[in-house]
Amino acid sequence: MDIQTFETKLNELNLTKKEFANMVGAVYNGVVNWNTKGETPKWVDSWLENYENVEKKIESDKMLDIRAFLTNQYNLQTSQKEDDCLKLNYKFNNVSVNLYFDIYDVDSIAFHMILIYEESYYYTALNIDNIISRNQYLTKVPENILFKILTNGSLDKFYNNMRQRILEDKFIASKYSKDIDFKKVLNHTDKDTDEDEKPFLYCLRKTQMSEKQLEKLYSRLNIARKILWEIKKQGYTIVTTSDFTKRKKLILILKDLQIKIF
Predict the structure, then answer these.
(1) pLDDT for the residue 95
(2) Nearest CA to 62 among 136, 138, 158, 165?
(3) Taking the model in full, what pTM does it have?
(4) Nearest of 164, 97, 147 to residue 124 by alpha carbon
(5) N or C terminus of the chain with fewer C-beta within 10 Å?
(6) How far is Cα 103 from Cα 65, in angstroms, rounded to an integer?
(7) How far apart are CA 249 and CA 262, in angstroms?
(8) Torsion angle of the four alpha carbons 160, 162, 168, 172, in this order, in degrees rounded to the nearest 10
(9) What span, in angstroms and rounded, lies between the C-alpha atoms of 227 and 191?
(10) 140 Cβ partners below 8 Å, 6+ apart?
(11) Where are the domains of the chain?
């Protein structure tokens, strides 16, 4: 590994050369002297890779704990009605980021994101399980918002900041019906939003689900892929709604098709 790559990797892992030397049992000056050779010993590559994998595992475990924590807080702080949620608001590069979590339907955990910048709005559902380990692709983002959340053409910094906020900040109890941001954004975007991209599950429609649509639903909703395949196999697709009063639990939607929750 060349020195520039080594230093970049240390920076990504939030390690100094001194910390690295202490961890591997090397003399600090020896690590610094690698600069004169222009490269590191071969074992450094595998060590950094293993360290990164361990850090990702720790972060993943923390996120899983957070999911359990949010579920517990949702149950403690709310009445678990269709209107109840937990909300987290913060700023990223002057963009207002609003995250909403509810487990009204245990078979399809709701996790929504609303971005607001100046007069532009953006809504999407997120799969909280996917967010733990990878960045979800965002479509149809207004250009001025996209410009603010991209860093060198990547969403890595945006999502890493989100994960940190989820771990460190506090969600508060809220209601969709009383949340100004949620209502305003959904009112502005509802007519231009596809029927499978709205916040809440509504019904099934007798329309063949494409594989592309199945993957889109899986990436946005916390519904098991097996269930989506069963819906597809029977010639149906999922319809969503922006009206929380019309939301239905997955188990009820599937009842007529006799599809069982795995």
Answers:
(1) 97
(2) 165
(3) 0.74
(4) 97
(5) C
(6) 15
(7) 15
(8) -170
(9) 28
(10) 122
(11) 3-60, 61-257
Instruction: Please identify which residue in the block is written with the tokens 């339907």.
Output: 105
Q: How many CB atoms lie within 10 A of CB 195?
A: 14
Looking up tokens 């970049």, which residue turns up? 8
Q: How far apart are CA 227 and CA 69, in angstroms?
A: 26
Other beta carbons less than 10 A from residue 135's beta carbon:
15
Model pLDDT for residues 26-79, shown as the tens digit of each residue: 889 888 889 888 889 989 888 888 878 777 665 666 666 777 888 888 988 888
Q: Could you give the CA distance from residue 101 to residue 126 in angstroms, rounded to a whole number?
A: 10
Tokens describing residue 39: 């490269």
pLDDT, tens digit, 9 for 90 and up, residues 112-132:
999 999 989 999 998 887 776
Residue with tokens 């149950």, as numbered in its chain: 75
Which residues, in sequence order, are bridge partners of residue 200? 241
At residue 218, the pLDDT reads 84
